[in-house]
Amino acid sequence: VVDERPNPNKASLEATKEKVEKFAEQQQEKLEVKIIPNLVTGNIFTSIGEAARKFGAQLIIMGTHGMQGIQFIIGSFAARVILGSPVPVLLTNGTKQYSGFKNIILPFDSTIKTDKMIAKTIELGKAFGSTIHIFSQKQEQSLLGKVKTSHSLQQIKKQIRKAGLVCHY
């Protein structure tokens, strides 16, 4: 995503597009996966989610370097992408080499539908032999809400364990 605010010129966009396509081609050969390069001008926080929707993506993987400078006040780019994303977002620090993920944290919120996120978490967990940790920050106030949340968490835990993974919450 090229930021539209400085109004980039056509030559600059074309040069960037060529670089993206060349990089995608190199990575596709190296990683043996299909890569669809897509260069758009717009707002990074909304354009990534729109592209995910356009391509039917099930997961966005995004590199991050941590918050710096003004990001401490307005929030990180990655956090803002997560908030506007229609699909789960996996953040990774590109300076580290990973051979897998020993632990995966699955956020739980009883007010949203999480079926796809759970399925993707199980898929990643099985691929890496990970332990799944379900995390919920929201506390239900009513007894009925607490019972429903507890039941939902038990069902998710059962689903994860049925897939042969270790699960904690």
Helix fraction, binned, reads 40-55%
Structural class category: alpha/beta
- Widest sheet, order of strands: 5-6-7
Mind describing the biggest β-sheet?
3 strands, parallel
Basic shape: globular
Rg result: 19 Å
Q: Roughly what fraction of the amino acids lie in strands? A: 15-25%
Oligomer: single chain
Question: Mean pLDDT, nearest integer?
Answer: 82
End-to-end Cα distance, whole Å, is 37 Å
Query: Helical segment tally?
Result: 6
- Summarize the helix and strand pattern as letters: EHEHEHHEEHEHE
Would you identify the regions where 5 or more consecutive residues have pLDDT less than 50?
70-75
Number of strands: 7
